[in-house]
């Protein structure tokens, strides 16, 4: 049995210039017997426009810990759904397996844990004839791995948040407030 009950992490990895492939996953990790496991099981049904699916690396290759992904944006067309269930899902799957390889996630607890990851996929990606699939993979791979790492290490810590309270501000506050 694991003592990991409820850990959270997030990350943002920015796209290459001219792309809308920014990745911003948010992850919750916990025991299959705890609140994360309950939330995971309750996500098995679908919600119109917000597909939920297991993270797989490819056909018949569901990752461990079992991971459910869902989009933050309403799915409106097949092009978007194919990117989400294709490149984005594969990138996340590879990142999860690499987290096991690198001991970011404990291998000996892989069947005792589960994860839920909310995924940002910019709707413009589905309409972009020049979409760089390699950059879409890169951003989602890096951001997923970083979000999981942050969840497992409790980063940023309370001390870090307090220390940078007046030096870090949300990008949407530029011109709104001054520190």
Secondary structure elements and their pairing?
Elements (H helix, E strand, L loop, with lengths): L6 E4 L15 E6 L3 H8 L9 E3 L11 E6 L6 H24 L11 E7 L13 H21 L4 H6 L16
Parallel strand pairs: 4-5
Antiparallel strand pairs: 1-2, 2-5, 3-4
Helix pairs in contact: 2-3
Detailed description of the structure:
This is Formaldehyde-activating enzyme. Keywords: Lyase. InterPro entries: HCHO-activating_enzyme, HCHO-activating_enzyme_sf, Ribosomal_Su5_D2-typ_SF. Residues 8-171 form the Formaldehyde-activating enzyme domain. With 179 residues, the protein is of the alpha+beta class. The protein has a single domain (6-173), classed as Ribosomal Protein S5, domain 2. Helix content is 33%, strand content 15%. A five-stranded mixed β-sheet has the order 1-2-5-4-3, sandwiched between helices. The longest helix has 24 residues, at 78-101.
Q: Care to give the gist of this entry?
A:
With 179 residues, this protein is of the alpha+beta class.
Labels describing this entry:
179 residues; alpha+beta; Ribosomal Protein S5, domain 2; five-stranded mixed sheet; 4 helices; globular
What fraction strand?
5-15%
Order of helices and strands: EEHEEHEHH
Looking at CATH, the homologous superfamily is Formaldehyde-activating enzyme
What Rg is obtained from the alpha carbons, in whole angstroms?
17 Å
What is the arithmetic mean of pLDDT? Answer: 95
Structural class category: alpha+beta
Whole-number tally of structural domains: 1
For the biggest sheet, the summary is:
5 strands, mixed
CATH topology label: Ribosomal Protein S5, domain 2
The number of helical elements comes to 4
Shape: globular
**Strand order within the widest beta sheet:** 1-2-5-4-3
- N-to-C terminal Cα separation, in Å? 46 Å
Helix content: 25-40%
Poorly predicted tracts of residues = none
Just give the CATH class. Alpha Beta
Task: Please report the total strand number as a whole number.
Answer: 5
Keywords: Lyase
InterPro entries: HCHO-activating_enzyme, HCHO-activating_enzyme_sf, Ribosomal_Su5_D2-typ_SF
Pfam family, one: Fae
Domain Formaldehyde-activating enzyme: 8-171
